[in-house]
Design a protein that fits this description.
Layout: H1 3-8, H2 15-18, H3 28-33, E1 38-42, E2 45-48, E3 53-56, H4 59-62, H5 71-83, H6 95-107, E4 112-118, H7 121-138, E5 146-150, H8 159-164, H9 168-171, E6 181-184, H10 190-193, H11 209-217, E7 222-227, H12 243-253, E8 257-261, H13 275-279, E9 285-288, E10 300-305, H14 306-312, H15 332-347, H16 350-366, E11 374-380, E12 383-388, H17 397-408, E13 411-412, E14 414-416, E15 419-422, H18 430-446
Parallel strand pairs: 3-13, 5-6, 5-7, 7-8, 8-9
Antiparallel strand pairs: 1-2, 2-3, 4-10, 9-10, 11-12, 12-15, 14-15
Helix pairs in contact: 5-15, 6-15, 7-14, 16-18, 17-18
Length: 448
Amino acid sequence: MPVSQAASSNTPLTREAMEAFWLPMTPNRQFKSKPRLFVGAEGMHYVAQDGQRILDGMAGLWCVNAGHGQRRIVDAIQTQAAKLDFVSSFQMSHPAAFELAGRIAQIAPSGLDHVFFTNSGSESVDTALKIARGYHRARGEASRIRFISRAKAYHGMGWGGLSVSGIVRHRRDFGPLLPEVDHLSHTHNPEQMAFSRGQPSWGAHLADELEKLLAIHDPSTVAAVIVEPVTGSGGVFPPPVGYLERLREICDRNGILLIFDEVITGFGRVGAAFAANAFGVTPDLITCAKGMTNAAVPMGGVIVSGKVYDALMAGPENTIELFHGYTYSAHPLACAAALAALDVYQDLALFEQARRIAPLWEAAAHALKDAPHIIDIRNIGLLAAIDLRPRDGAPGARGAECASRCYDDGFLIRASGDTLLLSPPLIIEEEQIAALFAAIRRALAAVG
């Protein structure tokens, strides 16, 4: 549908008409008094209800990696819906599920060659945690039940993922959570890393904190360490040089599985299929979602090493190896969207495009260093974070106002407290990068 038609075919919603929908992660009463509604999307832009074009500086929510309205993905979904709308993958399935699993395994790091499909990043994390425990039990080490994550980590909203997450506000209202969880410190130290570009050179030693936790809990009780290779929602913290390698070595030495949560970094965000490829560190499991279908249909997955898979396949052939799954695992429409998305990524060479344009992205982000209120800037791949000095007595207010001013100016960014987060579609061009950061500079100049 052309953008102009999409915008003109909608009328404003009344407050009463909006009341039934409880929006997630949203101050609902405030939102419904001044709603932000989109009626179309194309390429790098959303279209607001009033017809304004909004450049998408967040790829939706870290997920529309190939830009909006990719025709090949749209056509694939429509064709599949008319051919096979649904089939369960409980003791049956459909050919596209197997094709998709094979193609994902081809682009994943060597040795990660099995895929368990879910419907979201949250489900992927809970699935990975269950697989980790199941793996150790299958090998006769049922005592390995503990998980170790990091402060500032975001691992979704499922019960397991929330338990291993390290963002206090997400956890506060819902305890007690899983008790067998501990957290490493996060890797960001402004005194050592302020205005770092890419991976900081300082901080590999922070991985040694894992040794201290193992000394407290006993390695034989730990099932897995789960980390985002690049902390995303917690503030875009790239891993220090050597940090992930050290985690891998410690886990190997102690028989602990290493899980990379790549829900954000998967499918090109840091210039490779997965951050594991980009950093040259191979975990035992990778959780993914978001960019898997370019966000056109909800879908997620856990990419599993042969070592883990084979351990769970050791019983009788007629036995269900993993009592876990979802009604919509490998949904036909999601598989069609994901296969088309992989075609788009390949044909447009978007992972290579992300690597090519990343230096321009980095330069534009750090050119803001002299703008008002800025205390730190970080970037890696097509991710960036800008920390603002909080207002006295009003933490988060300055970030929220800056994001609001950018929106009014035609640019969608995300504020997490006083941190501005950026994660555009991989199709972003040089002039759009310049325009986005110019809008942020204007907003910062206007924010008191």
